[in-house]
Amino acid sequence: MTNSPPSGISRAVALAILFVAATMAFAGCSPKKDNSQADVAQNVTLTADQLQHIRLFTVAASKFHKTIETTGAVDFDNDQATSVIAPISGPVTRLLVSPGDKVKKGAPLAMVDSSDFAAATSAYSKALATARNARRLSDMDQDLLQHNGVSQREADQAKTDAANAEADRDAALQTLASLNVDPQALKDIQDGRPVSHIQGMIRAPIAGTVAERLITPGQLLQAGTTPSFTIADLSRVWVMAQVFGSDLAAISVGDQSEVVTGMAARNLSGRVDNISAVVNPDTRSVQVRVAVDNPQDLLKKQMYVRVLIHSRQESDGLLIPVSAILRDDENLPFVYVALRDSSFARRHVSLGYRTGEQYDIPSGLKAGDRVVTDGGLFVQFMQSQ
Fold first, then answer.
1. Which of 137, 144, 148, 276: disulfide with 287, CB 3.0–4.6 Å?
2. Are 192 and 219 in contact (CB under 8 A)?
3. 122: left (phi > 0), else alpha (psi -120 to 50), else beta?
4. What is the rounded distance in angstroms from the CA atom of residue 347 to the CA atom of residue 125?
């Protein structure tokens, strides 16, 4: 009779067999590495029939003019706009214009009940009368001097007094003129006609449009201090455009520009007339001023617009059609380049300035390379197979 093995040994052998079986089963289910998937995309070779649907473009050095597109805000042309400061003190009694009104130079803007105005009018009347009397006495003394009626000294003194009085008269007249007195009122004073109470007047120093009215009836004005109105010639305005980084090097004074409002049937023409010497510390941009003709007052202050600045400077680069640019899974731009062995290689490129339907390629291509412009998607599909 055969002796049975001890129960402990049978249990150990059984466990070993189960372990080996489990290991082999796991190994059989594990996925094998697919060596057909390379880390780098392989070149693509097409048949003669497939090549008939591919169009190539030969890269060459090109010259072009940049158009810088940016945004800007409308402002008054400060060479044709002015802030009207109250020339006299006193309360405003009447406003004669409203914002948007067009005025001529010297047109009345507001009336002011001013003691300064009354004092200046009175001073001129007195100075005018004094000058007339002094001149009359001087002429009389000159006549008497010829007949030995007065001494030379007395005649000279009368002449000096007349000159001083006339100087005071002219100074008083200049004061009234600076207060924008109505010319008819001045003529009445000079002709000796009685003049009723004359109210002070604020007048337009230039012709243009009332852009702002900064005072109200009853407001007390301080001479030489209180801003009252803003008058601007709106036939031309400034657009303050913001230009960043490398675009600034392409811009120079005199470059032609276009302002896009979205409201006009066509863009408004302008011209770069100033480039700021400082950088905005908040936006890191440089302010470029574009002078723009403003027919029908279409552009308003603080309006935001698009600005196209056409550079006169000639730039060099490698231009390829936009249709040649494809994107990979990481959204990086690339093109397909035709090689000497008739295959196509994927090549990543960097995109520079876009001019019309072409991109400037700063890196990734060289002159003489042939890139696929039509059929690139088909080549990409074949590469993925």
1. 276
2. no
3. alpha
4. 91
Give residue 94's pLDDT band: very low, low, confident or very high (50, 70, 90).
Answer: very high
Q: Which residues contact 297 (CB under 8 A, 6 or more apart)?
A: 209, 234
pTM for the model stands at 0.62
Q: How many whole angstroms separate alpha carbon 142 and alpha carbon 156?
A: 9
Is residue 299 classed exposed, middle or buried when 0-12, 13-18 and 19+ CB atoms within 10 A define those classes?
Answer: buried
Numbers of helices and strands, H then E, in the chain: 6, 22
| Two structure tokens written together for 82 | 């002015």
Amino acid (one-letter) located at 350: S
150 pLDDT more than 70: yes
CA 62, chain centre distance (Å): 31
- Encoding tokens for residue 264? 């006009």
Q: Backbone phi, then psi, for 159, in 5-degree steps?
A: -65, -40
- From CA 279, how far away is CA 266, in angstroms rounded? 32
Q: Is 301 within 8 Å of 284 (Cβ atoms)?
A: no
pLDDT at 202 over 80: yes
User: How far is 379 from 385, CA to CA, in rounded Å?
Assistant: 10
| Token pair of 227 as six digits | 């801003």
Cβ-in-10-Å burial (0-12, 13-18, 19+) of 344 comes to buried
Mean of the per-residue pLDDT values for the chain? 84
Expressed in angstroms, the distance from the first to the final Cα of the chain is 70
Judged by DSSP in three states, 56 sits in strand
Map residue 133 onto helix, strand or coil: helix
CA distance 89 to 224: 8
HEC string of 155-185 equals HHHHHHHHHHHHHHHHHHHHHHHHCCCCHHH
Q: What is the pLDDT of residue 125?
A: 85
Is residue 222 within 8 A of residue 89, CB to CB? The reply is yes
